[in-house]
Design a protein that fits this description.
With 405 residues, the protein is of the alpha/beta class. The chain contains 13 helices and 17 strands. β15, α10 and β16 form a beta-alpha-beta unit. The chain starts with 13 loop residues before the first strand and ends in a 5-residue tail after the last helix.
Length: 405
């Protein structure tokens, strides 16, 4: 268990908080999805209410270590001010920290908020060498007395602003980080059973460590998405021009054998919706995925079929903890979104029936948001890459640096 802001005295203390304000912007610089800002507000509101002097920081996009107006956090500052109902001090400073920033940080009154410019305007922030990061981390730390890391989405990277600051200040987590660790941790370590994991995505190699971890932890695994075709091919099924991870074929066979040996339910699609082109309006048909049959050589699988949807949703109804990482079809195209939508709907219904439902970030989170179902899940992770590494059982540097309770 890691300490959170509620475990320390922040009154009249200057706190520098790493948030995840890496939000999408349109060509006019308008925020198109404010989910991550909303996720940071419980921690920010708490710090304001406790009379802390608050310095917020985040990265945005990939400006490659240079000041680029396209990646300025100015729109975020305006959004924060509107949410807080008071000014948020912000200046677009190319070097992120300068004399004006230091002077403002030193003059903050309790409850006042300032936002630093995009930390990745400084190449040192995400430099691979911690020694290169160190001077910038020290600059950031010099502004405050306490470090709060609430950026779970960046916690899997050891950057100056996510972990390096903790070399110079006491560090605790914010409430979003606490929530992420609680739901993802409990799903793996203390799940209500039956525990079901649903995995999609493209390559088997990308999910190998997660599959191995979940074979130990979960009672059942459902495999969909592009990587399902590698498993189907390993079983002797024809997959046409569907996505194939050739290097993962032997691995897929080994994983299926391991699941069998351990008595785990390991379900692959029994039918697939395939088309002759990667296009929404391409002619499509459903094919049974039973060896030696399958998808014709001139077609590619783009979604799970109706029988698979029925089987998968039945498994979801049985489960008490459900973890979903990766869509089961090309949900961005309406013609091939039925499987992913059915999974999302079934999970929302499971939540209402008392199950714990956890969406492991990335495209799964995007799909749930697209369907307006985010609020009907127990938890939707804000960190795609961080969620994956956490589920693999890897230590997250941005979490490790925070003090233990």
């Amino acid at each position: 268990m890691k300490k959170t802001v509620r475990d320390i005295d922040v009154h009249n203390k200057t706190v520098i908080a790493r948030c995840d304000f890496n939000v999408p912007l349109d060509e006019n610089g308008k925020i198109t999805d404010d989910t991550r800002i909303a996720g940071a507000m419980p921690t920010i509101d708490y710090l304001v209410a406790q009379g802390a002097k608050i310095i917020l920081m985040s990265h945005l996009g990939r400006p490659d270590g240079k000041a680029d107006p396209k990646f300025s956090l100015a729109p975020v500052a305006a959004d924060l001010a509107a949410r807080l109902g008071k000014p948020v001090w912000f200046e677009s400073v190319p070097e992120v920290v300068n004399d004006a920033v230091r002077a403002k940080a030193a003059s903050l009154a309790p409850g006042e908020v300032m936002l630093l410019e995009n930390t990745r305007f400084r190449a040192e922030d995400d430099a691979k060498d911690p020694a290169v990061q160190a001077p910038f981390a020290k600059e950031l730390a010099s502004l405050a007395e306490i470090f709060v890391n609430d950026a779970f989405g960046s916690a899997h990277r050891r950057h100056a602003s996510t972990a390096g600051v903790a070399d110079y200040l006491p560090a605790v987590t914010g409430f979003l980080m606490e929530k992420e660790l609680k739901f993802l941790g409990e799903a793996l370590d203390d799940p209500k059973r039956p525990f079901l994991a649903i995995l999609g995505g493209a390559k088997v190699a990308d999910k190998i460590k997660i599959i191995e971890t979940l074979l130990e932890k979960a009672d059942a695994l459902l495999i969909g998405g592009g990587m399902a075709y590698t498993f189907q091919k390993a079983k002797g099924c024809e997959i046409g021009t569907s996505l194939l991870d050739k290097d993962g074929l032997a691995l897929a066979a080994q994983l299926m054998e391991k699941a069998k040996d351990e008595g785990k339910v390991f379900l692959l699609p029994t039918d697939a919706l395939a088309a002759d082109a990667f296009e929404n309006n391409a002619p499509s048909a459903v094919y049974e995925m039973t060896p030696p049959g399958g998808i014709p050589e001139n077609r590619m699988g783009l979604d799970i079929g109706p029988e698979t949807i029925r089987r998968f949703t039945e498994e979801i109804k049985k489960a008490r903890t459900i973890l979903w990482n990766g869509p089961v079809g090309v949900f961005e195209m309406p013609a091939f979104a039925a499987g992913t939508r059915a999974i999302a709907d079934a999970m929302a219904a499971a939540t209402e029936a008392g199950a714990i439902t956890v969406i492991g970030g990335g495209d799964s989170a995007a799909a749930v948001a697209q369907y307006g179902l985010s609020d009907r899940m127990s938890h939707v992770s804000t960190g795609g890459g961080a969620s994956l590494e956490f589920l693999e059982g890897r230590a997250l540097p941005g979490v490790e640096v925070c003090e233990d309770k």
